[in-house]
Amino acid sequence: MNRFKLVVFLVAISMILAACGPAATEAPAAPAATEAPATEAPTEAPVADEGCAPNCEYADLVVGFLQTGSEGGWRAANTASFKETAEQLGLTLKFYDSQNDLAKQVAGFQQFIEDDEVNVIVMSPLEVTGWDQVLEDAQAAGKIVILSDRRIDGNEDKYVTFIGADFVEEGRKAGTEMCKLLEGSESKNVWELQGNVGAAPAIDRGTGFRETAEECGIVVTKTQTANWSVSEGKQVTEAWLKETKDVQGIFGQNDEMAFGAIEALKEAGLVPAEDVKIISVDATAGAFQAMLDGTLNVTVECNPLLAPQVYEAALAAMNGETLPKWIPSEESVFFMDDPNLQAVADGRKY
Amino acid sequence: MKKFKLNLSRNALSESKLLFPIIVLMLILLFDFIFIPGFFKIENRDGNLYGSVIDIMRNGSIVSLLAIGMTLVIATGGVDLSVGAVMAISASVAGILMNPSALKNEVFFVTDPTYTFQPLWVVILVPLIVAIICGIWNGMLVAFMRIQPMVATLILMIAGRGIAQLITNGLRVQITYRPFSLIGQGWFILPVSLYIVFVMLLITWAITRRTAIGMFIESVGINDRSSFFSGISEKNIKLMAYTFCGFCAGIAGLVACSNIKTSDANNIGLYTELDAILAVVIGGTSMAGGRFSLVASVIGALVMQAVTQTMYAVGVPAFALTAIKAVVVIIVILLFSDQVRNVIRGLGTQKNEV
User: Fold this and answer.
1) Sign (positive/negative) of CA torsion B181, A71, A232, A282?
2) Residue B343: is its pLDDT beyond 80?
3) What letters, b where the CB count within 10 A reaches 16 and e where it falls short, cover B123-136?
4) Closest to B162 (Cβ–Cβ): which among A20, A236, A269?
5) Which CATH topology does B2-353 take?
6) What confidence score (pLDDT) does residue B1 get?
7) In chain B, which residues have their Cβ closer than 8 Å to the Cβ of A27?
8) Are B165 and A70 in contact (CB < 8 Å)?
9) Residue B109: its chain A contacts at CB < 8 A?
10) pLDDT class of A25 with cuts at 50, 70, 90
11) Residue A39: its pLDDT value, please?
12) Cβ contacts (< 8 Å) between A101 and chain B: which residues?
């Protein structure tokens, strides 16, 4: 009998363990806010009509947000931005975690379409294709659809706008900064640590970087994928350093890979940010720390705090305004020698 | 003459566990020697040795550690898919013990290399205990609940990374504590992580080969029922193997996070369970269980790291990287196939007879 109890106990434990895996964090969104009146006045306008246009306020918005799932610091900051901004503006947010599963995301989308309260659907799509049907359904139900952070192929008439980073521009900024850092240097050999093979940010950042970097004679002598990760960034740089130390700059397509390169340079007896200039993209907390330590020269921001822009666009769409199909997110560049760096770093949320 | 040849082939057969992985490793190194100038150059910097060959051993140390534990599990006829997740858990626990800021869901900047929340021995001991508990959990499910190993360890593989993310609130924890970072970054003539692998290998070898435990493991792997009837407590042997595998994964997690001075629940140990299984297989241990060789598994891990290192040095474009690795692995695995060996052996004897 004891054994039976043990079995029951262990099964229970295993179920609990299994359940708290990449768990569903379906936070019931921000409280506050008056719920929008769920009137369904049939109109021929393509834009949702909640009876308040053209004088809708944030309080009239009920936003259904389909997040991709948890990945790391960037995504966490992105989610937090949506939740906190909703609270500040007094709008209602219904949060749905797709757990990186396309089927779940589509199901969540349909759930929002059928939800009479929801008038705006914001989505970070997991895939670029396969959205035709749900987008049509959303249009038929009179919901406003806004894409955030990731884009989809085609269907431009079925969503209001896409708000997200311009990866090419990020690359261009990095290239320009690298030019400034290497000004006056005799040889301008730069190594590049790429993201995942085929990922849009990896391709676009690489293209943008070359565009501006080549103008001042920078040669990208080595390029390899390090899969966005610290350890691979370190390994790749280590292997290259064994072969040659003729390198003046390293471009990490995200912060983590640049950190790996920094560690590798230190071990090889080179001084990062002095002997070898380092630029990364993302501007996460770690990058600020590295800059404060004096090991990273420049980081180009990839802003996860998209919520203010998204909500603004949602409100504008509710009020019947026409928006451009792509609103690039606001992004800046941070420098190691900025005297206010500590203050900037303290004010950062991610 | 005939007798001599028979002896030779029998020798080759019994030694083949070590022979084939070594041959493959040698071939890769030969390739490096010919095509990559300066690959074998070893630099002496303040008494410490640096070089590509040392990089192979050092970067291979994580998979080597996992492979040591995995060998025992696979030898019992099981498999442990959760080692990568256990690495992440162990790294997260260690990270939190040194820099608890993530618990409050905030990131604060520490640059002081002596700052730590708990003393070093706690930082090392607690994650290892947690890893051992994870191992015991797997072992209980497999040995006492009779759940198939792949299913049983799959639970922790999926849940474990989630647990690690819960521990760190999904944040990346920076490690600045200098004594801890020595585990993965320190050098004492050779990298410290190499000594860790060596000591673990030695201990495991002593436990399995100087006592009867190794034989028990092999016997359980070959046939657990008959082992049970001949008086071997197969459940305890399995439990021990999984527990030990968890312990090894815990150490690997510490080495991994100290090497990059970051405890990253999302990426540490991601997909390394597959590398570890592959290393064991390259080392010649059958997935069906039975005979095993620890040294061969570690060499298997080095083979894979050597391939990776070579690819980086040659400058293979990123998109071709995985495909080329796969080709090398296929060749090695084919060498272990009895069919292929028979063909090779057949060719050899025919030539000799002619």
Assistant:
1) negative
2) yes
3) bbebbbebbbebbb
4) A20
5) ABC transporter involved in vitamin B12 uptake, BtuC (1.10.3470)
6) 41
7) none
8) yes
9) 285, 288-289, 292, 345
10) very low
11) 40
12) none
User: Going by C-beta distance under 8 Å and a sequence separation of 6 or more, which residues neighbour residue B79?
Assistant: B70, B73, B149, B150, B153, B277, B287
Task: Examine the pLDDT at A22 and tell me if it is beyond 70.
Answer: no
Distances (CA, A) of A255 to A180, A291, A328, A341, B177: 20, 11, 21, 17, 21
pLDDT for B166 beyond 80? yes
The residue among A329, A296, A54 whose CA lies nearest residue A181 is A296
Judge if A21-165+304-329 and A167-302+335-346 fold alike in CATH terms.
yes
From B55, B166, B174, residue closest to A238, measured CB to CB: B55
Nearest-Cα distance to chain A for B247, in Å, is 20
A21-165+304-329, which class in CATH? Answer: alpha beta
| Residues 131-170 in A contacting B (C-alpha not used; CB under 8 Å) | none
Classify domain A167-302+335-346 at the CATH superfamily level: Response regulator (3.40.50.2300)
Instruction: Say whether B313 and A238 touch across the interface (CB within 8 A).
Output: no
Give the gap in angstroms from C-alpha B37 to the nearest C-alpha of chain A.
Answer: 8
Q: Which residue shows structure tokens 């396969």?
A: A130
Q: Say yes or no: ipTM exceeds 0.85.
A: no
CB–CB contact A21 B159 (8 Å): yes
Q: Contact A22/B261, CB-based, under 8 Å?
A: no
Cβ contacts from A onto B, under 8 A? 123
Per-residue pLDDT reduced to its tens digit, B26-52:
999 999 999 888 888 888 888 888 888
pLDDT band at A199 (very low <50, low <70, confident <90, very high): confident
Going by C-alpha positions, the residue among A86, A127, A149, A122 that lies closest to residue A327 is A149
Distances, alpha carbon A75 to alpha carbons A255, A303, B268, in Å: 14, 10, 17
Domain ranges of chain A: 21-165+304-329, 167-302+335-346
Whether residue A347 lies within 8 A of chain B, CB to CB, comes out as no
B109 near A CB under 8 A: yes
Considering CB atoms only, which of B109, B158, B267 is closest to A345? B109
Instruction: Please give, rounded to a whole number of angstroms, the shortest distance from the CA of A129 to a CA of chain B.
Output: 23
Domain ranges of chain B: 2-353
**Whole-number Å distance between alpha carbons of B14 and B30:** 25
Q: What are phi and psi of A278, to 5 degrees?
A: -125, 130
B69: tokens are: 């534990």
Q: Looking at beta carbons, which residues of chain B come within 8 Å of A242?
A: 38-39, 41, 51-52, 55, 313
Assess A236–B contact: CB distance below 8 Å, yes or no: yes
The mean pLDDT of chain B is 88
Kindly list the residues from chain A whose CB atom is less than 8 angstroms away from the CB atom of residue B325: none
Whether A16 shows a pLDDT value over 70: the answer reads: no
Residue-wise DSSP of A232-280: HHHHHHHHHHHH----SEEEESSHHHHHHHHHHHHHTT--BTTTBEEEE
Confidence (pTM) = 0.78
Indicate yes or no: CB of B312 within 8 angstroms of CB of A235: yes
pLDDT of residue A43: 39
Q: What percent of chain B has pLDDT over 70?
A: 92
pLDDT digits (tens, 9 = 90+) for B193-244: 999 999 999 999 999 999 999 999 999 999 989 999 999 999 999 999 999 9
Sort out which chain B residues have CB atoms less than 8 A from A349's CB and list them.
none
**Looking at per-residue confidence, does B168 or A50 come out higher?**
B168
Q: Cis ω on the peptide bond leading into residue A31 (within 30° of 0)?
A: no
* Spatial distance between the Cα atoms of B131 and B85, rounded to a whole number of angstroms: 10
How distant, in Å, are the alpha carbons of A216, B100, B200, B208, B221 from that of B297? 50, 37, 13, 14, 17
More confident residue, B334 or B349: B334
Q: How many CA atoms lie within 13 Å of B189's alpha carbon, on the beta-carbon side?
A: 1
